[in-house]
Amino acid sequence: AQSVTQLGSHVSVSEGALVLLRCNYSSSVPPYLFWYVQYPNQGLQLLLKYTTGATLVKGINGFEAEFKKSETSFHLTKPSAHMSDAAEYFCAVRLSSGGSYIPTFGRGTSLIVHP
Amino acid sequence: DVKVTQSSRYLVKRTGEKVFLECVQDMDHENMFWYRQDPGLGLRLIYFSYDVKMKEKGDIPEGYSVSREKKERFSLILESASTNQTSMYLCASRERQDMNTEAFFGQGTRLTVV
Hints:
The complex is a heterodimer.
Chain A: E1 4-7, E2 10-14, E3 19-25, E4 33-38, E5 44-50, E6 56-58, E7 64-68, E8 73-78, E9 87-97, E10 100-105, E11 109-114
Parallel strand pairs in A: 2-11
Antiparallel strand pairs in A: 1-3, 3-8, 4-5, 4-9, 6-7, 7-8, 9-10, 9-11
Chain B: E1 4-6, E2 10-13, E3 19-25, E4 31-38, E5 42-49, E6 56-57, E7 64-67, E8 73-78, E9 87-94, E10 104-105, E11 109-113
Parallel strand pairs in B: 2-11
Antiparallel strand pairs in B: 1-3, 3-8, 4-5, 4-9, 5-6, 7-8, 9-10, 9-11
C-alpha cells in the first residue's frame, strides 16, 4: 500500500496564480513530512519539512505547507506562481521499516507555469 | 553545505555488462541511499546503508547489489545490466536515522542500457 499519495501528476497554473500541490500520507506513528523540488536534470533539494511543533511550515522560495493530522495531509502552497517554479515536486514521509527509518516518496507532481 | 557527488551524469552500457555507480558524500553522514526514478513512478528505494559495511534491501533490490566499505562512499552495482534498468539513479545521504533530518541528494546518473 502506498504511504504517500500525491494527487495529480501534473498541475498547470498561470504566472501569478495560487499554487496548490496535494499530498496525503498514511502512517501509524507521528510522521516526519518533507517536500522536495527537482529542477530538470538535477537532484532533489529540500523545500521544507515538518517534524514537530507548528503545523504551518515555511520553506524556501515562498512555499509553505500545513500539516493536518485529521486529514492526514501536507499540501504545498505558494500564493503567486513564478515561471521559475516550474519543476517536479515530491512529497516524502519518513517511514519505519524493520527498525530503520526510510524516506519514502510520492510519485511526484509536475508543476507547469504558463506566462 | 553537504555535497553528494555521483561519479557520472550520463552512462551508456551494453546489455550484460557489469555496471558500477559511485556516490560520495563529504559530511560524515551515517546513512546512504540509492533510489531509482522513473516517470510516473516517483523514487523507489533500491538499497540503503545505515553505516559502514551495513546494507538493507529496499523495495526493488532485484538485479542490484551495493557496497559500502568506507563511510563516505556507497556504490551501486548492476551485476548484468538489462534494458529494463535504463533509468535515472539518485544517491542520497542523511546524518543519522534517529534524527529528523532530511536527505541530501546527488545530481543523478542517467543510465541507458542498450
